[in-house]
Amino acid sequence: MRITFLSTGAAEGIPAIGCECAHCQRARAEGGKLRRERSSILVELPGYTLLVEAPPDIRTLIDEANITHLDGLLATRARYDHIGGLIEFEYWPHPLDLLAEEHLYKHIREEYWAEHLDRIVFHIPYYPGVPLYFDKFILLPFSVRRREPIFGVLFQEVERRVRVIYTNDTPNRLTNYARYLMRGADLIIVNTPTFEPPKEDHITVVEAIRLHQEVGAKRTILTYISHRNKPHDELEAYVSTHPGVEVAYDGLVVEV
Questions:
Q1: What is the DSSP string of 101-131?
Q2: What is the pLDDT of residues 139-159, one digit of tens each?
Q3: Which residues pair with 44 in a beta bridge?
Q4: DSSP letters spanning 55-117
Q5: Are 9 and 82 spatial neighbours (Cβ–Cβ below 8 Å)?
Q6: Distances (CA, A) of 5 to 62, 129, 137
Q7: For residues 125 and 102, what is the distance between their CA atoms, to the nearest angstrom?
Q8: Which phi and psi angles does 107 have, rounded to 5°?
Q9: Can you give the CATH number for the domain in which 21 is found?
Q10: 230: how many CB neighbours lie within 10 A of its CB?
């Protein structure tokens, strides 16, 4: 399983528009790993290449990564920074699956649809707790919030039994079911827009490290970083003292 972090920023990206904070000023001046576009990952599974999230910058991200083949898109939330780039795919040259829970799909149709997408995109509904079988791997979605449709997903290769958990816009208050899925995972990819509590609507870096230790994950990668968090080099230095925890950056490629 090969995972490319096309982009690793939170909803506003780094540097945030019009922001003059020290983090954003450094990102503008120095670039490199300090800059982050809005979050998206490419997951290359056995026989199936899946884009998870389609942020507004997706056209540029796909072009920079030289991606010419996709089998499907997976949506976890109907919000602009997660799905605002879907409209770009009305020009995609091949048919695409769109994996989205039914209520989530309804919101996407209402807010982010375009006329020609009906020719390209085929909706495949998923349901929390119900696995989707793809012969050589399983995709298992799970709910991460109750007030609106937001989902995490487990990817498991059948033969090797490798398990990867992806969560985005996840609060620290996870269900017991979600924590059970994370136990002993080979990799957890978790959103950490800010460094430490209080942050009720998102897990923080401090809490994610605690989660990594509690569930006994082999590896945890932090993503969805906002300009209110520490700059990449400072964050990297901090997590280096916690074995198995890493900080993603735009363009990072990992194999599991």
A1: -HHHHHHHHHHH--TTHHHHEEEE--BTTBP
A2: 999 998 767 789 999 999 999
A3: 2, 49
A4: -TTHHHHHHHTT----SEEE-SB-SHHHHTTGGGGGG-SS-EEEE--HHHHHHHHHHH--TTH
A5: no
A6: 11, 25, 20
A7: 6
A8: -65, -40
A9: 3.60.15.10
A10: 18
Q: Which domain holds residue 172?
A: 2-255
**Are 86 and 73 contacting, i.e. CB atoms less than 8 angstroms apart?**
yes
**What mean pLDDT is reported for the chain?**
96
**Closest Cα partner for 192 from 156, 133, 161, 238?**
238
**What does each C-alpha distance from 156 to 45, 73, 233 come to in angstroms?**
9, 17, 32
Task: Take residue 150 and report the two structure tokens written for it.
Answer: 């937001």
End-to-end CA distance of the chain: 5
Taking the CA atoms of residue 194, residue 199, residue 202 and residue 204 in that order, the dihedral angle to the nearest 10 degrees is 40
The C-alpha atoms of residue 79 and residue 70 are separated, in whole angstroms, by 22
Residues 6+ apart with CB under 8 A from 16: 24, 226, 227
Q: Whole-prediction pTM value? A: 0.97
Determine what percent of the chain is predicted with pLDDT higher than 70. Answer: 100
Contact 120, 92 (CB under 8 A): yes
Q: Fill in the DSSP letter of residue 36.
A: B
Report how many domains make up the chain: 1
Whole-number Å distance between alpha carbons of 25 and 227: 10
**Alpha carbon distance 254, 244 (integer Å):** 13
Closest Cα to residue 110, out of 86, 90, 144?
86
Token duo for residue 232: 């990449």
Tell me what pLDDT residue 79 has.
93
